[in-house]
Specification:
Blueprint: E1 2-6, H1 9-16, E2 21-25, H2 30-33, H3 39-51, E3 55-60, H4 68-80, E4 85-88, H5 92-100, E5 106-108, E6 110-120, E7 123-128, H6 144-147, H7 174-185
Parallel strand pairs: 2-3, 2-4, 4-5
Antiparallel strand pairs: 1-6, 6-7
Length: about 220
């Protein structure tokens, strides 16, 4: 799940500037789960905008704001309503998906934080940096890119104290977590394996995947 948090409302108002007719685009998936882009949050933002001199002329609530075809269908009503600006109440991907398909300024209501796991309703933990080169098979399922403050892939830095990270003492040292997990799995030999540092030069951004391509 993509985890997002609300931007300060003052920043959003600054981005909207002189635009009077506003459309809101929420997201029934991740943003709703994070309480930043669901129907409730859309209603609250609509009330705020209209109390501060804006007119909300249209709203859209696609099942997934990152789904191009779903968003394209929703944008027809926004175009017809004469919106001067759109507020995207989703992750950055959703905002970009909207902006790609319409010649109206699109402004983010949220800051996108991380890809995370749901611990329980309203509680999320960062779980993946989406680096494109997963090493979980060598580290007992504990991601050093995410769990280690320094994203070290070949062992600890040596700065831990009482099992806690020297950068953020509230966090457990990722490599102690990895050691304990591998020990419980009977796979401590994997600690002898060298995991090369991440070579980001191997990726040309933005990346693209087409699962329809015929694999040879």
């Amino acid at each position: 799940m993509i985890i997002s948090e609300k931007k300060p409302i003052e920043e959003l108002m600054l981005m909207l500037g002189d635009a009077k007719k506003i459309a809101l685009v929420g997201c029934a998936s991740c943003a709703t789960a994070c309480s930043v882009g669901g129907e409730k949050e859309m209603a609250e933002l609509k009330e705020y905008l209209e109390a501060n001199g804006k007119e909300v002329v249209a709203t859209a609530y696609p099942g997934e704001c990152c789904h191009k075809l779903l968003v394209k269908k929703e944008l027809k009503a926004i175009k017809a309503a004469g919106a001067e600006a759109i507020v995207g109440m989703s992750c950055g991907d959703g905002v970009g998906t909207v902006a790609e398909q319409i010649d109206i300024p699109v402004y983010p209501a949220n800051n996108t934080l991380f890809l995370g796991q749901v611990e329980r309703v309203g509680m999320f933990n960062e779980a993946c940096r989406m680096c494109g080169d997963c090493v979980l098979g060598y580290t007992g399922g504990v991601c050093p890119m995410t769990k280690c403050a320094k994203s070290l892939t070949s062992g600890p830095c040596g700065g831990q104290k009482n099992g806690k990270c020297e950068v953020n003492p509230e966090n457990d040292c990722a490599w102690i977590m990895i050691y304990k997990k591998l020990e419980s799995l009977g796979q401590l030999e994997k600690l002898d394996m060298l995991i090369e540092p991440k070579g980001h030069a191997a990726y040309s951004y933005p990346r693209k995947i087409n699962t329809r391509e015929v694999k040879k």
